[in-house]
Amino acid sequence: MASEHTTGGSEGAELGRFLRARRTRTTPDEVGLTVGTGLRRTPGLRRTPGLRREELATLAGISIDYYVRLERGKETRPSPAVLDSLARALHLDDQEHQHLRDLAARAARYAPEPPPAPSRTVRPHLKLLLETMRPNPAYLLSRSMDVLAWNPGGLALYAGLGDWPATQRNLARYLFLHPAARELFPNWDTQVRACVSRLRAVAGTAPDAPDLTHIVGELLLKSPDFAKLWERYDVTGRKPAHKTFQHPHVGTITLTAQAMYLEGTPGRRLGVYTAEPGTPDHDALLLLDLTAPRSASHHPSEREGQQSRERP
After folding, report:
1. Which of 266-296 are b and which e, b meaning 16 or more Cβ less than 10 Å from the residue's Cβ?
2. What is the pLDDT of residues 257-269, one digit of tens each?
3. Beta bridge partner(s), residue 271
C-alpha cells in the first residue's frame, strides 16, 4: 500500500509495519547494546531512531536479509520460533507478543477479498438489557467503537455525543473530534491512547475491514493527535478501572468502568459505569438518568446505518 497511515494493504505489510514500529521505538540501551558490541556506532553518528535492522536481526538470531523481507511484507510465514525470538529481542509484553502472532497467522492465510462490514442490528433483548441497567450508564459498542445502542445515561454521560446523528456516534470520533471531549475528561491523553491502542489491535488483524478503515481513515485526515498515536502502533493500552468525568450537567463524578463481550455478538462490547449507592457519584448518576432527553433511548436501525455509510 502507498501509505503507512492506512489500515489497508496485505497482511504481510501489516506485520512489517508492526515490527518496524516496535524496532524504531526500542533503544540500544534497552536491549543492552553498547559501543563495544560491534552492533552500535558512535552515538553522535547515529541517525536511525531505535534499533537498526541488522541489530534486531542479530539479537533475534536471524539473518538480516530474512528480517528485511519480514519488515517489507515479503515474508509472510515466519516460524513460531522466529516470532518468539523477535518478541524477546524487542522486549514485547504478553499482549504485544500475542498481537505479533495474530498478525503472522493472518498473513499466512491472507484472503484477497475484504470481509463485509458487520451488521449494526441490535437484538431486542440487548436493548432491554441496557434499560434494566438504569440508572447505571450503559451502551453497546461495535469493534470500530460505533455506539450501536444505549440507555439514557449511557448517551448523556458523554456530553454532546447526543448532538450527533445516531449513526455518527462513535467513541473514537467523539474523543478526537468533539469539542466537549477534552473538557469532559481531565485525563484526556490517557483516554485517547487507550482508544487508539484498541483500534490498532483490532485493525491489525482485519486491516481491510470497511468499518475499521472508514473510522481510521477519517480520524487520520481530521486529527493530527490521532495520526501521531496511530504511528506509534501501541496495542497494549488499557483504560483505567475508574474514570473521572467533569460533566457540564451533574458536576465531577468518578465511576467504575466495566466492559465485557456478549455471547453471540462477535466483536461487540457492553460498557457499563457504576457507583456505590448512597454516594454523591451515585446521586449524580440518578440525576443524569432522570434528566437525559427522551431521544436518548433511540436506537438506530439497520436501514439508518446503511444510509449513513452511503452519504459522501
Report:
1. eebbbbbbbbeeeeebbebbebbbeebeeeb
2. 999 988 888 889 9
3. 139, 259
